[in-house]
């Protein structure tokens, strides 16, 4: 079961919308939100990055991927491969092991708790051409 959080996408949309990022000093502006970090992905590394960035007041935005049949078949649903893993026995802090989905939900929830914003859509391309960055 997915927790709430700050989901800013329209899950009913048939294809991802274009996002235009404007450079503002060392930060980026996304649809009116000032963001210093954009994270594409939602596995353990993405949520760890989001957590540390949020704790440092860097206003991270995570594109976690779309919940779609295509992504399910490719194994690229949000929360990464660990979400499809039953027993995770080699993750620090869990001497008795933990279920993959439970671990990934906890990581996501912790990042959200500190202010990470989440877009539940796929990123299909990124153009890093100043002064604007385009994420599709």
Features of the shown structure:
single chain, 136 residues, alpha+beta, FAD/NAD(P)-binding domain, 5-stranded antiparallel sheet, 3-stranded parallel sheet, flat, disordered N terminus
Number of strands: 10
Supply Rg.
15 Å
Shape: flat
Number of domains: 1
In terms of DSSP E residues, the strand content is 25-35%
- SSE order, one letter for each helix or strand: EEEEHEHEEHEEE
Structural class: alpha+beta
The helix content is 10-25%
Q: Low-confidence spans: pLDDT under 50, at least 5 residues? A: 1-18, 20-26
CATH superfamily: FAD/NAD(P)-binding domain
Helical stretch tally: 3
- Under CATH at level 1, the class stands as Alpha Beta
Main beta sheet strand tally, sense and closure: 5 strands, antiparallel
The N- and C-terminal alpha carbons lie at a distance of 27 Å
CATH fold-type name: FAD/NAD(P)-binding domain
Which CATH architecture would you pick? 3-Layer(bba) Sandwich
Strand order of the largest sheet: 3-2-1-10-9
Give a brief outline of the structure:
This protein is an alpha+beta fold and 136 residues long.
Secondary structure topology:
Blueprint: E1 19-24, E2 27-30, E3 33-35, E4 37-40, H1 44-55, E5 60-63, H2 69-74, E6 87-88, E7 98-99, H3 100-113, E8 117-119, E9 126-129, E10 132-135
Parallel strand pairs: 4-5, 5-8
Antiparallel strand pairs: 1-2, 1-10, 2-3, 6-7, 9-10
Helix pairs in contact: 1-3
How would you portray this structure in words?
The chain is flat and about 50 Å long. The strands form three sheets. Strands 3-2-1-10-9 form a five-stranded antiparallel sheet, with no helix packed on it. It is an alpha+beta fold. It has helices at about 45-55, 70-75, 100-115, and strands spanning about 20-25, 25-30, 35, 35-40, 60-65, 85-90, 100, 115-120, 125-130, 130-135. A hairpin with a 2-residue loop joins strand 2 and strand 3. The chain has a single domain, classed as 3-Layer(bba) Sandwich (FAD/NAD(P)-binding domain), CATH 3.50.50.
């Amino acid at each position: 079961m997915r927790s709430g959080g700050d989901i800013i996408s329209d899950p009913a949309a048939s294809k991802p919308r274009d996002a235009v990022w404007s450079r503002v000093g060392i930060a980026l502006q996304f649809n009116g939100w000032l963001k210093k970090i954009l994270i594409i992905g939602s596995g353990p590394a993405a949520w760890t990055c989001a957590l540390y960035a949020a704790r440092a007041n860097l206003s991270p935005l995570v594109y976690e991927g779309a919940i779609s049949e295509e992504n399910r078949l490719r194994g690229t649903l949000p929360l990464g491969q660990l979400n499809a893993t039953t027993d995770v026995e080699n993750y620090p802090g869990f001497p008795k092991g933990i279920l993959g989905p439970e671990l990934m939900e906890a990581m996501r929830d912790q990042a959200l708790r500190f202010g990470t914003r989440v877009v539940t859509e796929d990123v299909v391309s990124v153009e890093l051409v100043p002064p604007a960055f385009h994420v599709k």
